[in-house]
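As the next step, I selected for study one protein, both as residues and as discrete backbone shape codes, as given directly below:
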Amino acid sequence: MVTRTESAHSTLKGWAGVAAITASLFVFLTTELMPVGLLTPVSSSLGISVGVAGLMVTLYGVSAGLGVPFIVAWTRRINRRVLLSTLLAILAVGNLITALAPSYPLVLATRLVMGFANGAFWAIGVGMAMRIVPDRHANRAAAVVMSGISIATVLGMPLGTILESLTSWQTTFLIWSGLSVLVFLAVVVLVPSLPSANAVSVREVFGLPRVNVRLRSVLITVVLFVLGHFGVYTFIRPFLEGTSSASPTFITVCLIVFGAGGAAGNFVAGYFVARNVFASFTVGAVSLVVSLVLLLTIGNGPVGVMIALALWGLSYGVVQLSQLTMTRNSAPETFEAAMSLNTLAYNTSIALGALFAGLLADNAGITGVVWFGVVLTAASLLFTVGTRRARS
């Protein structure tokens, strides 16, 4: 019989492991997005254009999305702590090679490999956190891990830019390599052994949407939501510059407000999602649509922008955790495989959302991009409500 003391100790150790997994998300996401703030020095140092330097982000994201279903299936019998440790080791070595690489093609090849590791983490990380705490805390553990997104947005990217201004972009990646090593050690020490819980082959992974109607519906919801949200978010800076003549400092503050709202949304959703995930998603999606409409109507002044972005971040945090829980509920026996498809849909939709929004920005103006977000996020809400009623 497990005593209260043993149970408390086990729970405490589980949360320590959740913290290590959250730190993993932080280093993976900052490694993915940090080049956004370093494109100019990278291009100058390596003698390439800024657009070509942007491929550091593009290739990383493409491999993270397209490769993950295969990697998760091919590693389906590997202990998840061992797999996560391996992914972090790849991240540490990749950041080191990036810092020391003598040529840009080597940087791109390295980023491509690191992207595969990133995608695999997204497929297994949240599920690992949910497994190492008591069942009643599973959704809260997922919320804590997802808060790593907001932490990376609020702290990670600005910190990388500051480090580059004080040292160099190579030193910045070198520091991130060392940070990846520290997180690797934390995972080895704090995360318990986690044998693979739901082994699925590649054929079964890609067959899931065909045989699982609920999962297919969730993936469609994810595609619509991500297309709309990231289509607007990608162009938030030019929107603010064009509508409110925002300075770079004010834009940085706005992004911090958005990130803080996202963190708050994650924690709020951690409480409510466990009780009613459909209601949580509905409220979050409605609020997300409202926040984008507010951006259009009152976003021409600093106060209005702050209100819209705070609500947008909060709503995004709620919707983000809700869609993860919806994915888990739709395929509880094959959660990692379902998450690999979720990651594929998510990353592909980020790229497509930026592409479509870019075309709109060039041909219909930056305001058209926000309307694009309104329509797509509203479509994700209507689709989810409609499919639920159809199943009722």
Remarks:
- The two ends are 42 Å apart (CA to CA).
- Confidence is low (pLDDT under 50) at residues 1-9.
